[in-house]
Specification:
transit peptide, Rieske Iron-sulfur Protein, Rieske_2Fe-2S_sf, 410 residues, iron, 10 helices, 2Fe-2S, Naphthalene 1,2-dioxygenase Alpha Subunit, Chain A, domain 1, globular, seven-stranded antiparallel beta sheet, single chain
Length: 410
């Protein structure tokens, strides 16, 4: 009875603090890596509506406003995404000198590149003249030339040429290089850190402990390394808040027998187990032994690692795939899937096509679930829910980490 009363109280508070969502015209999200605006009162109330101190068996989930409110997303961008290491890509995107790729997180436009000497760099992808974006997509360049007025930068960020500035006063081109971002690699992943003063020297030496904590060795020992070449990328725009996709991943396999019949038939779901670490949760499951001549995508066991706040690493059989969830607005996200495969199978096109087809089926099933959950979260009928204590401990861990970031520094 006390639990029910607690849930009712949170439900009432959450309804009072959340605006009615609209899907017709999503608001453009904005965040700054250099200055953080005070959180809106409604966003503060939404943070406070979740109590991480309540034990899992008695806890209620965060209120639906966490998944629908644009001000809450702005707070997340400031307090979560633009602080600490964030996965932004993989090393195969910048394997060679002059390789580059671009991305966006909140309102931060960035470019990752490898210069002619093989040094890895990251910069804000913004010309210092009149703010045009410099590069788009990915590929190879020996320099970045602004498409607007031709200002040109080296891949080390140095301003090489500023066009038609004769007569300009109080100008030193050394002061107008690209603004750097801290960058590092761990295993096959490229990470960026948007929030701190720039100091590149020790980034690679500390990134594992800072990003993964005590889970770093565990992941390394389970085949999450640089040995698997990248073979394929898929991107999905999903009509759900970014956390809906994360929650779906973190339910301890709860939804698998109901939503993924084909996948469930290849897993021993009774073997599912979950462990949580500082910023990582790891789910493990054994696979059903395949017949000798059968197509075997899953191998004998699978490990599903969630790295807070939005990165998932899935290692199974000869495969590794990763899922990077990028918020677009309060009710939409982009999910980037990258697939890596054991070198011995990279020429087996039938195996690759069959594996990717099976993976695509799972993604379509998950996308349908996430879209349905988002619509339910926007309904006036729902405010808070409950956790299944035996399986949803990783989801609760995720919500507690979010609360810790969002409630600090007020």
């Amino acid at each position: 009875m006390a639990i029910a009363q607690s849930a009712a109280a949170v439900s009432s508070a959450a309804r009072a603090s959340r605006p009615r969502p609209t899907r017709a015209a999503p608001r453009r999200i904005a965040a700054s890596a250099s200055s953080v605006a005070p959180p809106e009162p409604a966003a503060r109330r939404l943070v406070a509506a979740f109590d991480p101190a309540v034990p899992l068996a008695s806890a209620v989930t965060p209120p639906s406003g966490w998944y629908t409110d644009p001000d809450f997303l702005r707070l997340e961008l400031d307090r979560v995404f633009l602080r600490g290491w964030q996965a932004v890509g993989h090393i195969w995107q910048v394997k060679n000198p002059n390789d580059y790729f671009t991305g966006r997180l909140g309102n931060v436009e960035f470019v990752i590149c490898r210069d002619a000497n093989g040094e890895l760099h990251a910069f804000h992808n913004v010309c210092r003249h009149h703010a045009s974006l410099l590069a788009c997509g990915s590929g190879q360049k020996t320099c970045f030339q602004c498409p607007y007025h031709g200002w040109t930068y080296g891949l080390d960020g140095v301003l090489l040429k500023a066009t038609r500035i004769s007569g300009i006063k109080n100008f030193n081109k050394n002061d107008f290089g690209l603004i750097p971002i801290k960058v590092a690699t761990w295993g096959p992943f490229v990470l960026a850190k948007f929030d701190s003063g720039f100091s590149q020297e020790t980034a690679d030496n500390t990134v594992g402990d800072e990003w993964l904590g005590s889970a770093s060795d565990l992941l390394s020992r389970n085949g999450i390394d640089t040995s698997l070449p990248h073979i394929y990328r898929r991107e999905y725009i999903i009509e759900c808040n970014w956390k809906v996709f994360c929650d779906n991943y973190l339910d301890g396999g709860y939804h698998v027998p109901y939503a993924h019949g084909t996948l469930a038939s290849g897993l021993q779901l009774q073997s599912y187990e979950t462990h949580t670490y500082e910023r990582v949760s790891v789910q493990r499951c054994e696979s059903v032994q395949a017949e000798q001549n059968d197509f075997d995508r899953l191998g004998t066991k699978a490990i599903y690692a969630f790295v807070y706040p939005n990165f998932m690493i899935n290692r199974y059989g000869p495969w590794m795939d990763t899922n990077l969830v990028v918020p677009l607005d309060a009710t939409r996200c982009k999910v980037i899937f990258d697939y890596f495969l054991d070198k011995s199978l990279t020429d087996d096109q039938n195996f690759i096509e069959s594996s990717l087809k099976d993976s695509e089926q799972v993604q379509m099933e998950d996308i349908a679930l996430c879209k349905g959950v988002q619509r339910g979260l926007e309904s006036p009928a729902y405010s808070v829910g409950r956790y299944a204590p035996s399986v949803e401990m990783a989801m609760h861990h995720f919500h507690c980490l979010l609360h810790a970031n969002l409630s600090g520094d007020w």
